[in-house]
Each structure stands twice: as C-alpha cells, then as structure tokens.
Predict the structure.
Amino acid sequence: QVQLVESGGGLVQPGGSLRLSCAASRSIFSINVMRWYRQAPGKERELVASISRGAGTNYADSVKGRFTISRDNGKNTVYLQINSLKPEDTAVYYCNAVFEFRNYWGQGTQVTVSS
C-alpha cells in the first residue's frame, strides 16, 4: 500500500506562486509514475502533470510553462511548483500513484487564486 499526503496549498493572489508537496509512505523509486490532478468546483478531475521514475515529465497544455513537477526519491516526495497562478487554477490538487496495479490518492490540498 501507499499513503500519500499533500501539503502546500493556500490562498494566493493572481500571478503568485506555490509549491505543493506529496509525501509518500514508501519509496517512490518503486512507483513508475507519479501524477498531480486537480478538480475545480463543478468540474471533473483533470490530469495536470506526471513524472516517471526516470524523471520524464508531461504536462497539460493549460499549465505548460507555468507548472513544474519534480521528485526527490530520497525524501519520497513529489513536488508541483506552480507559478503565474491564475484564478482558473483554483482547485483541489491531488497526488496520485499507481502501485502494484492499484490506484492511490491523497486527500488533496486546496489552492485558491483570488485578489
């Protein structure tokens, strides 16, 4: 099993930055791909970014150039650096891992972008 705990969300003004963290209960080196999703009110959960064991990354078009996903295998933590925040980035951000064919989610961290 894998427990995932997100942190780092908060209220930020447009144009601001945040760094989200996702701490895993086991070595993330054993997890092929770690992902960040987000879900805005009234909308479906969407994939924002992913990072492979080899540190290959992919991003949704809506966040390219503003979001950066990274992983620290030594700390069993995945990060999402979010820059140039926009009101439409407001959502609950979730960390995701697929391990031994099971899907694991964290509890989410709220990001609110408002002036």
